[in-house]
Write a structure and sequence with these properties.
The complex is a heterooctamer, with two copies of chain A, two copies of chain C, two copies of chain E and two copies of chain G. Chain A is of the alpha/beta class. The longest helix of chain A is centred in the middle third of the chain and has 22 residues. Chain A has two domains: 230 residues, Thiamin diphosphate (ThDP)-binding fold, Pyr/PP domains (Rossmann fold, 3-Layer(aba) Sandwich), CATH 3.40.50.970; 112 residues, Rossmann fold. In chain A, 70% of the residues are buried. By secondary structure, chain C is α/β, with parallel strands linked by helices. Helix content of chain C is 40%, strand content 21%. Chain C contains six helices and six strands. Chain C has a six-stranded mixed sheet with strand order 2-3-1-4-5-6, with helices on both faces. In chain C, strand 4, helix 2 and strand 5 form a beta-alpha-beta unit. In chain C, helix 4 packs across helix 6. Chain C is globular and about 40 Å long. Chain C starts with a strand and ends with a helix. Chain E is α/β, with parallel strands linked by helices. Chain E has one domain: 3-Layer(aba) Sandwich (Rossmann fold), CATH 3.40.50.970. The chains are: A alpha/beta, C alpha/beta, E alpha/beta, G alpha+beta. At the A-B interface, helix 4, helix 5, helix 6, helix 9 and helix 12 of A face helix 4, helix 5, helix 6, helix 9 and helix 12 of B. The structure holds thiamine diphosphate (2 copies), iron/sulfur cluster (SF4) (6 copies) and magnesium ion (MG) (2 copies).
Chain lengths: 351, 351, 177, 177, 254, 254, 74, 74
Amino acid sequence: MDKVFISGNHCIAEAAIRAGCRCYFGYPITPQNELGEYMAANMRKNGGIFLQSESETAAINMVIGAASTGARVMTSSSSPGVSLKQEGLSFLAGFEFPAVIVNMMRGGPGLGNIAPAQGDYFQSTRGGGHGDYRTPVLAPASVQELADLTVKAFDLADKYRTPILLMGDGMMGQMKEPVLFPEPVTDLPAKPWALKGRGDGPSRYQASLILDGLAMERHNWKLVRKYKEMAEQETLFELYMMDDADFAVVAYGTTARIAKGAIKRARKDGLKVGLIRPITLFPFPDKILQKVAQQIKNFLVFEMSTGQMVEDVRLALENERVVIDFHGRPGGIIPTPIEFSRVIHRYYRRM
Amino acid sequence: MDKVFISGNHCIAEAAIRAGCRCYFGYPITPQNELGEYMAANMRKNGGIFLQSESETAAINMVIGAASTGARVMTSSSSPGVSLKQEGLSFLAGFEFPAVIVNMMRGGPGLGNIAPAQGDYFQSTRGGGHGDYRTPVLAPASVQELADLTVKAFDLADKYRTPILLMGDGMMGQMKEPVLFPEPVTDLPAKPWALKGRGDGPSRYQASLILDGLAMERHNWKLVRKYKEMAEQETLFELYMMDDADFAVVAYGTTARIAKGAIKRARKDGLKVGLIRPITLFPFPDKILQKVAQQIKNFLVFEMSTGQMVEDVRLALENERVVIDFHGRPGGIIPTPIEFSRVIHRYYRRM
Amino acid sequence: MIVKTLCAGSGGQGVMTLANIMGNAAMIQGFHSTYLPSYGAAMRGGTANCTLTIADEEIASPVASAPDIVVALNQPSAVAFINRLVSGGKLLYNSSVTEEIPKRQDIETFSIPANDLATELGNNRSANMIMLGAFAQLAGVPDNDSIFASLDLLMGNKPALVEISRKAVLKGAEYFS
Amino acid sequence: MIVKTLCAGSGGQGVMTLANIMGNAAMIQGFHSTYLPSYGAAMRGGTANCTLTIADEEIASPVASAPDIVVALNQPSAVAFINRLVSGGKLLYNSSVTEEIPKRQDIETFSIPANDLATELGNNRSANMIMLGAFAQLAGVPDNDSIFASLDLLMGNKPALVEISRKAVLKGAEYFS
Amino acid sequence: MELINKWPEYHKKDVVSHYCPGCGHGIVHRIVAELLEEMDLGKKAYLVCPAGCAVLAYNYFDFDVIESAHGRGTAIATGAKRANPNLFVISYQGDGDLSAIGTAETIHSANRGENICVIFINNAVYGMTGGQMAPTSLVGQSTMTSPAGRNPEVDGYPLHITDVVAQFPGVVYAERVSVSSPAGVKKTKKAIRNAFETQQEGLGYSIVEILSPCPTNWKMDPVKACKWIDEEMVKEYKPGLLTDKREEKRKEKG
Amino acid sequence: MELINKWPEYHKKDVVSHYCPGCGHGIVHRIVAELLEEMDLGKKAYLVCPAGCAVLAYNYFDFDVIESAHGRGTAIATGAKRANPNLFVISYQGDGDLSAIGTAETIHSANRGENICVIFINNAVYGMTGGQMAPTSLVGQSTMTSPAGRNPEVDGYPLHITDVVAQFPGVVYAERVSVSSPAGVKKTKKAIRNAFETQQEGLGYSIVEILSPCPTNWKMDPVKACKWIDEEMVKEYKPGLLTDKREEKRKEKG
Amino acid sequence: MSKKDKVFTVKVRRDFCKGCGLCIEFCKKGVLASSAKLNSMGYNPAEVVKPEACVGCLMCTQMCPDLAIEVYSG
Amino acid sequence: MSKKDKVFTVKVRRDFCKGCGLCIEFCKKGVLASSAKLNSMGYNPAEVVKPEACVGCLMCTQMCPDLAIEVYSG
Ligand SMILES: Cc1ncc(C[n+]2csc(CCOP(=O)(O)OP(=O)(O)O)c2C)c(N)n1
Ligand SMILES: Cc1ncc(C[n+]2csc(CCOP(=O)(O)OP(=O)(O)O)c2C)c(N)n1
Ligand code: SF4
Ligand code: SF4
Ligand code: SF4
Ligand code: SF4
Ligand code: SF4
Ligand code: SF4
Ligand SMILES: [Mg+2]
Ligand SMILES: [Mg+2]
């Protein structure tokens, strides 16, 4: 297969179909409309299911229904719409159903705007829904990675029986880049737990209601163990120019790209700066930060928010004697590499 | 006024009415049904508004409508219902509308159960809705405090123009205790920003849509400043037996009460244990923890969850050389003072 | 002083009323008191129970995993909760509707034919108040004045009911002592 | 090498198509390329613009706060974006529909009567392809083979359109050089 | 001696339900189980049980069951049926669930003509949460949240949601019945059978609204509760066929 | 020389709207502003504008306006009107907003008979998000999410939500009109006037559904779009009065 | 089925009966009545008081929400 | 109002007109037409081509979504 010059939104849709996604349920919202539109154009003609639901709330519950039967299923939305899915996300986690949920973030709170932002980090990584659960979060930084992580999201969802959030933003969704798509998946994992009618076997049920406190508690700790296992096995990150760095920027998604541009500039000025880019936001790549902190004592977190991931960086480095600075541009402002490099200079000098 | 032996749910309702709450919109859900029922019995006959909405989503939007006109307004729910309000909460924060939202938490995720739990800490303190906002959270630990903090919630909401979360759990809502109610508020603050029809003045509008990125960013930082100011001015906590303590338990709400019982037991055994009880969960009482950490190096966090507030404790103490342990009972299990005191012994010995 | 009591009975027996009156009375007498009903999704209708704690100091947990006293208004309640009693605890049960209770050596048991006494009083429905009178004796708190004040507070609009209840309380106390 | 271009025009002028073909062509030639349309809630219909970046290294930000080149398919676009150009940058505009452009001393301007040339070719609608041909010359990338391959890829199902477009591209390139 | 009322295969035996004495849910459960057996549908049945008193229905039904978030039954049913059309999909819902919080899902699944069956238990009250007013509560009905009786001026009139969806072209079968008498039970079974046939033949959406006693929250004994249905509730909610487009749809399908 | 078409006081002057050329929203805005002036309601008017193309309506209206989360207009309107009955409350909503995500709020505010006016812009498409299928899209209508045309088999039939709510006792006035011709505009104004009167007199809920051109997403020029309404859309959505219970309610109120 | 010459036997599954009384109400033959003795759940279950009157009409089983009645022919 | 003996003057607020053409279509008197020259927003606005034909019927203003037409009597 050749590379394709494709937008992020279309790319996710295409990658999902190649990953064996058979059902898509969604409701329009900018800046991710093209994802649903691609599904509308391509799902049905290949025997798949595309359904524009009456709301995001309905969509996530359709996802629950489809997931319960064992199908690979996706929904997508953007910030306000994802808020409406929080109850459903909590149910998916409670049911332990695999599903992929895409959030192309926009500026908020409220209606906010449709520009790229990273203000939903807390909601995504801490569980915006109720109860003791977390949602693993993948945060790609290029259209190619959108493709790769979409496929990975389906695999992880099935492997760990959990909803997975794929997080981008307006820019990631709209921009086109060359992408090499993986071949369509042919073998999908068996799901013996899926409801397919009892047939000749015993009847089964799927419930997130667990009236007995002790049983509920066991379930909660089981989820925690699952997340711990994912933390061991599935944490992803990228290191960029870190080999000889004495100062580390931490950024994800769109911000990480801009940070790379800034680092290139700063390097030209002789600053030994590198980037740690978390790719999984939950589980957060604590270990690499801790490892880096053995050498490097200065960290600078960039986010398109007022400061959310920075808490995870602080938590990761709580036992290290390091300085953690933060620079945020919330509300849909896309900062420039020049701006970031200036900030790097400022904090670098203070080191 | 004499003391009244009253349940937590009724107490909140009565205190709200005394605080000048004129409108209540809500949807039934255990374990907080009695709150709405009290409102149903008492609002209308005093010219107030009680309306059982068609859903939690509708309720929070009715709250937005009423709040926009300047009325003191409340809604209440429990975990799954609060998840459905997340979009609305984000809007309230964006609009900067005052309102009081009660969450009597239950076990989760999903339908979970209706027993007391503290699994919604992240959702409440980190903003379960989308975008860059936070919701101040009050966490009472007795029925008397439910009354006092309900009144305080309305005052803070108006003062800072923000939604305020009042967080209890099934136990807090169901239990009765003696309460001395404050006198009904008569003077309510003026709200010049409220929409009351333009009259002879210029027209106004209230919008959370801020298409211009720079304006949205300014708005986001404004919210941050507001939260910082609240952190300076409004942080609440209780210290219990801390004077001579060399070991500190940190717990809130129901868990804090149980911790007190445990501490009493441990004290009998000669352990010098005390309790730090955050009353505002956001803003979190960082400073007192940091102050205590000058003397005490061992902290033990109790939660009825798999570990959520413990992150705030770790963040507060990131620069201190202290040991932070955690003991959690999620899923609706109410731990006993005996159990907690055993845990205290265990960690105390290790000290 | 802290007394934790678990009160249980079937839906219509007025067990929650009993505990509520006691909780109020304790408050009136100046004690700390907490009342925690059990509530559940699992069983509609059926039995009801609640925990009442009376103390002269701040009450930590309103839950009683090991109550000092169990007040059982019917047989199923006695059976269900006798094993929850702390060692050395006391079971007060309604012998009018209880045939047999499980044996437990390390507790004291007290029986009172509450329904029969209520019938004697000419009011079948006040068996719970008979139990209340006995229970207050057993617990040592609250005093009768506070209980009567509590009755006035909660049933003040029904003087006849207050009257009957007072009598039943006294009868229960008397039978007990 | 990295070239950031802002392409702008009115809705129907095909400015997005132009940039998309260029982005594809750059990819085909082995460059890194990113294309970022502006999208907005504020103005329905009206003008459209996008940023195209072509580079021989990984592209950090697909945004161009200070583009190297502005390609303006109509006057309002030229007016709106000339000030965004980096100092030393280049403005390529469609002189068929542009009467006057603001003055700026530190940039180079290039005009091309795209609509007129398109009319000469007998196809009014290919003004954007004329611009594309000129733009590729100005940018130095991508090469014609890649552009033609890109046309094949994107319009392959409409051979007539490919033919016309090829001609327009060549005409634009020719006029430019 | 031969047992005439054979135990329905798809109903678990020797479990005592959590329902109150005289609750209509139990009657409807039995009917559903009987029909799945009689129509040989139990092996591929997939029932969505609601947040509501029937939340534990999976403890009684002996075929595959999933539990729904409050009000989302038909969304889950839609997802399941679309993903796996071989399933026989039933959404079992209460009046609060279906006609309050789930209104949008109800209206749109019906309007799309999803090929699912909806069993709608109308007991004019929120049973599970202790007797609050439902959209279906009668005018003047006193509930925990309408202590002075439902007042249409502020609370609105009873909502006839089944009549609403019956008008949609995609709704092939809709009937209102009651389980307040043996005759009602018989009609209920007939109606659910028709609804099941509708899905079985792939004709589209079907809904059966069942007036069902909630003695506990109506504060009546079960016999009185049945009388109240027959004397009061039917005045507002007239039992009867609301639509039957099966013939038409069969013709369309050829 | 005297200006005949006086500038409506409650419409901001010298602002260019963000609407596309020929968009019906602009026509309806003008009518609303005119009526608020003619009926002397502008000073106490409170309009909820939706997430939808009309999201920026506060830039054009010169009276108090609040913006709604997508679909929640009537919930906000309910809250505002109940909290302050002196306000004259209008919920302005698109078809996606009112009949998809906002279905539950629409149905229940109508069923409660809230004393508010709903202006329902039916353009058979999601305008703001770029032309996806709406519940009101016509059978066969090609949109961004029904590229092969709306297929009732899978997408359902067009939803007639105004007809649904018109049946509720609390809905006092409901009419469907169009702004595709001067005659239609005149009728629209009349209908909105009646709706406004309904609230003014405290009679209850009123709704005016307006068939409104969206040339951009229909991919037609504005004149063609108006024709399409008059020739195609009206076949599915027949203009006319759907209910008028004003006299009845006036009598009730005495 | 309800021919008078046939004999029917009715049994109440005592510990599954919640004593709702619906079977008693709807058995027009007076076969069933409420037992004075509580069952294990604490309810007064239905009991058969006029076994010979049963005509096998199944009105009782139709109405029983708890599948607590068995009717046998013979 | 539309009596023929009255005189009406029509003005198009050129820079507020989006050239939708609705006024042109619905003016049955042919008063308006599309201007060949773009306005500041880049649209071809409506312009008055037969001023004398105007009968003041206000069909144009009724249809104009952008309040871009003014009709004067006299
Ligand atoms: C989001 C959410 N809101 C509220 C609830 C609480 N709740 C559970 S069931 C129910 C209503 C039950 O009434 P109905 O649907 O009529 O069923 P019934 O119990 O009467 O059979 C409510 C409000 C919930 N579980 N989830
Ligand atoms: C929760 C949420 N979901 C989705 C959106 C995106 N959205 C904004 S407007 C709209 C639909 C607009 O269509 P309609 O209501 O018909 O109004 P129109 O633009 O056609 O006037 C959508 C889906 C949103 N803002 N919020
Ligand atoms: S509360 Fe009502 S609906 Fe629920 S189980 Fe009891 S009788 Fe049945
Ligand atoms: S997209 Fe349609 S509805 Fe929206 S402004 Fe343009 S024409 Fe109007
Ligand atoms: S089968 Fe008929 S006659 Fe026999 S007990 Fe039952 S209801 Fe009575
Ligand atoms: S109907 Fe069933 S549960 Fe009710 S009394 Fe008769 S046997 Fe018992
Ligand atoms: S007022 Fe009538 S005649 Fe005059 S321009 Fe307008 S539409 Fe034409
Ligand atoms: S109707 Fe208005 S906007 Fe449209 S062409 Fe005429 S004047 Fe211009
Ligand atoms: Mg119900
Ligand atoms: Mg629309």
